[in-house]
Amino acid sequence: MKVNVDDFDAFRNELVEDEPEWADTDIQGAVRSILTAIGENPERHGLVKTPLRVAKMYEELTAGYHVDPVTLINDAIFDVHYDEMVVVKSIDYYSLCEHHMLPFMGKAHVAYIPRGKVLGLSKIPRIVEMFARRLQVQERMTTQIADFIEEVLHPLGVAVVCEGVHLCAAMRGVKKANARMVTSAMRGAFRNSPQTRNEFLKLLNHTDSD
């Protein structure tokens, strides 16, 4: 199942704890300094509004810092008599590498085995987005998603697999555009039972045409 979260920005606006006040000041000044340092003229026609655009971009791409996790869940935890695996596949995410502040993006796959409680379907991709829209490393983001779901649901197990393409490796450095990073975090039954873990990984490889 592919879940899109195109409405995250509108949803986030209802959940912010404090709107950042630096967007019109600190970042714009920093961008002007960078433009000057690389030999550009921040006053030329094509760049006059660039500092403001960059400030607004960072506000959007780091929105995850300003989301209240409790409100994000918003009582969307439901009692159920279901103890089989729940899997949400192919959640698109976009994040910023904290080392170079270049984008990395890919897909997250999340599974859990309920212990009498399930999350509303839309909450899983929103949890992914909350952690993705920060300065990140993929390894930490993967564990944060798993740990948060474990904390709010106390399930029998949680599994998260993230695939990512990192522009810091594709555009600079080793310049390997086709390199993909895969990270995983296994909790509970997914860590302790090879059979459960293999079932999850098999479901990730399953396609509608199978």
Describe this structure in words.
The longest helix is centred in the C-terminal third of the chain and has 16 residues, at 138-153. With 210 residues, the chain is of the alpha+beta class. It has helices spanning 8-13, 26-37, 50-61, 69-73, 123-132, 138-153, 167-170, 189-192, 194-205; strands at 77-79, 86-97, 103-113, 117-119, 135-136, 157-166, 181-188. 39% of the residues lie in helices and 23% in strands. A five-stranded mixed sheet has the order 5-2-3-6-7. Strands 1-4 form a two-stranded antiparallel ribbon. The radius of gyration is 20 Å and the shape is elongated. The chain has two domains: 17-64, Orthogonal Bundle (GTP Cyclohydrolase I, Chain A, domain 1); 69-205, GTP cyclohydrolase I, C-terminal domain/NADPH-dependent 7-cyano-7-deazaguanine reductase, N-terminal domain (GTP Cyclohydrolase I, domain 2).
Counting H and I runs of at least 4 residues, what is the number of helices? 9
Helical fraction: 25-40%
Strand order, largest beta sheet: 5-2-3-6-7
Mean pLDDT: 89
Give the biggest sheet.
5 strands, mixed
Within the CATH hierarchy, at the fold level, what is the topology of the largest domain?
A: GTP Cyclohydrolase I, domain 2
CATH class of the largest domain: Alpha Beta
Helix-strand string:
HHHHEEEEHEHEHEHH
Alpha carbon gyration radius: 20 Å
In total, the number of domains comes to 2
CATH architecture field of the largest domain: 2-Layer Sandwich
Q: CATH homologous superfamily of the largest domain? A: GTP cyclohydrolase I, C-terminal domain/NADPH-dependent 7-cyano-7-deazaguanine reductase, N-terminal domain
Global geometry: elongated
For the record, give the distance between the C-alpha atoms at the N and C termini, rounded to a whole number. 14 Å
The low-pLDDT segments are 1-5
Class from helix and strand fractions: alpha+beta
Give a count of the beta strands, DSSP E runs of length 2 or more: 7
What percentage of amino acids are in beta strands? 15-25%
